[in-house]
Design goal:
It contains eleven helices and eight strands.
Amino acid sequence: MSSAMTSENKPGPLVLDRYELLERIGSGGFSTVYRARDHRMGREVAIKAVRRTDELSDRATLEAKAAAKLSHPHILTVFELAEDEDEVYLVSELVRGETLAECIAGGALSDRDCLNVALQVLEALEHAHGRGVIHRDIKPDNIMFTGDNPPRVKVMDFGIAQLENTQRITRQGDVVGTIAYMSPEQADGRTVDSATDIYSAALVLYECLSGSNPFQGGTAAEIIGKIQVGALPLSRVRPDLPRELSDLVDEAMDPDPGLRLGLKSFAV
């Protein structure tokens, strides 16, 4: 599928015989996101096209299909998943708003806002984990604020991490930012379970409260080294926070997944 968009006076490329691509709104190493018009339903949607690679497995596609069936107020709604020889397409609701990454960069979040975001993300994870779906890529760029008043959080890209590429840790560029949110076991290439999502969610809260990701910066190898060493206790970075809160975040980021705080305990 060509990523070129046509002029406003001409129709855009048609995908799956019903979705007209209007503009490209995002891209990564293995995928491109478009704003599109669903001519059958008469609404605008988002389409994520993930390039098929040699590493793409049937298991990854099955997991994406399972994720597409999730239904929760804090999870981006996926309307359809389809594929051809070249790409896998996920058609979802189009959310107009800012990502958590943009809000953190703008310094617009209070501590209470940060806690509300974390609780909504944990609700989404509880729903997904209860249905056997692990996200594997929780980070501020995958958390979107809706335009509602008050804004709600939507977690995006459930089931996408395996689709985009299981070997992406070896890549550079925008992937380095993703590595900075990986759990130690994920960065090591070990098998992951729901504990890896808990770690990443706690790290996102750590960043919200402190203003920065403690592992960001440097090459992929340098970031992985920082992850293995671990972050400074949150109480050292924000001594003004309640100690109980800092301890919860630290326990949810324990390098050993077996000792890591569970989802329900973290959400208390």
